[in-house]
Amino acid sequence: MMIVDEKFKVDFFLDTNILVDYVQGENQLLVQSLDYLAKCPFVTLRSSHYVEFEFTEVRKKNEFFKIVHGEYPSKKPEDRKCVKNYGSNDWKDGDFDYLSYKDTIQSCIEQNLNLLKNNLKVDFDDHVLHEKLVKTTCKIVLQTKISREDSMVLVSCMYPKPVEKLLYCVILTNDKQYNDAYKNSEECVDEILGHDDVYLPQFFCLKDMPVHQLKNESDIIEFWNKAIASFIKDKNASDYVGHTIKPNAKSITNGHIWFDMEEKHKKLYGSDGLVFISQDLSDYQNLVNCNKYYCNDGFCSELPFTVPDDTKFSIKLEFEDIEILSIIQKNRYYVFYDGKHENTPSLNFDL
Q1: At what angle do helices 28-39 and 16-24 cross, to 10 degrees?
Q2: What is the Cα–Cα distance from 310 to 263, expressed in whole angstroms?
Q3: How are beta strands 96-97 and 305-306 bridged, if at all?
Q4: Is the pLDDT at 344 greater than 60, yes or no?
Q5: Rounded mean pLDDT of the chain?
Q6: For the residues of 127-161, what is the DSSP string, one character each?
Q7: Of the candidates 287, 343, 342, 340, the residue with the CA atom closest to the CA atom of residue 315
Q8: Residues 186, 192, 194, 199: is their CA dihedral positive or negative?
Q9: pLDDT per residue as tens digits for the range 293-334
Q10: pTM to 2 decimals?
Q11: Which of 38, 160, 202, 270 fits as disulfide partner to 344, beta carbons 3.0 to 4.6 Å?
């Protein structure tokens, strides 16, 4: 099993509707997506106590509806109205009384939660309900059009515990209305969260996925690999160096790795090590404690060095594992600093 530093892993926070759709199994694209994310070493799936409570309520209604009508409620107005009114109708639907089926439904939902914890490795206890959530959530409810439920999900995502705040997390939702409400209120939410030094989450709505292009499992994996890689680069933007490019025969013989820094006039820094992540997320290499020599068109300079118009550089790493070097040279990798140095002593190169 590949072991990846937490810095290069993406936290995905699963919204209630995502978990409900997963256990009900009616959206196979969502099921396949979550199954892959759960296995990906660059991903951690999260949720919260609040989502667990909300999930239980939604599944209770849906399972009761299925017992009565033979299928889960659809998007039809009459189905939605029926489910919504269960509470006010004393949890009765025609001749069916919820209390006659409560043990069956409870057992089903408990199995659902075990499935989520075992299959997706979701630990709801990582994000607890705590006092500081309420105040921040109420502010968002009053200052935006985001519902109280969605506001609580948002805050509990980035603020797991009273003494713990996430720096980067992606809320995975299937609720377009929630996604749009957040986008329309992003500046206001940012200001409210900022008072408690809580960062804004990223949002990813599954309804924006190009469904017609995802015809098989390979397509789904490729889609998510690109999305995960994009989040990793965004999360580590200040440490992102660039991507590797194919070296010529001479460079391969000399043990050089070539990479493109992608931006003109970007600074090249020294670091304790370099992290290489393959673009298909099949490999992760953290190369530390080895000398690094940078070169651009035969000219090497002290670091930090401002990249000229030519953004292509080579690097020679002094380490003994020739096999790893060969793999990196032959494949496409994203390159990151590990322990970047803002100021590096003058270096003399002779390549």
Answers
A1: 110
A2: 9
A3: unpaired
A4: no
A5: 91
A6: S---HHHHHHHHHHHHHSS--HHHHHHHHHHH--B
A7: 287
A8: negative
A9: 777 655 455 777 787 788 888 888 877 788 999 999 999 999
A10: 0.91
A11: 270
Distance of CA 70 to the CA centre of its chain: 36
Residue corresponding to tokens 């072991």? 3
- Top-confidence residue, 299 or 166: 166
Segment 213-265, tens digit of pLDDT: 999 999 999 999 999 999 999 999 999 999 999 888 888 888 889 999 998 88
Structure tokens at 256: 């050089």
Asked whether the predicted pLDDT for residue 345 surpasses 60, the reply is: no
pLDDT tens for each residue of 51-63 = 999 999 999 999 9
And the tokens for 129?
């309900």
Q: Sign of the C-alpha dihedral, residues 163, 167, 173, 178?
A: positive
Cα of 223 vs its chain's centroid, Å: 13
Q: State the amino acid at position 227 in one-letter form.
A: A
Query: Which residue type is seen at 338?
Result: D
CA distance 58 to 50: 12
- What is the residue whose two structure tokens read 């929630």? 178
Which residues contact residue 100 at a Cβ distance below 8 angstroms, ignoring those fewer than 6 apart? none
Token pair in block for residue 251 = 């460079």
Query: Are the C-beta atoms of 55 and 71 separated by less than 8 Å?
Result: no
- 312-326 burial code (b ≥16 CB/10 A, e <16): ebbbbbeeeeeeebe
> Tell me, what's the pLDDT at 247?
86
Do 49 and 206 contact (CB within 8 A), yes or no?
A: no
Residue 11, beta-bridge partner list:
44
- What whole-number distance in Å separates Cα of residue 239 and Cα of residue 241? 6
* The two three-digit tokens of residue 111, written as one number: 């199995």
Radius of gyration of the chain (CA): 25
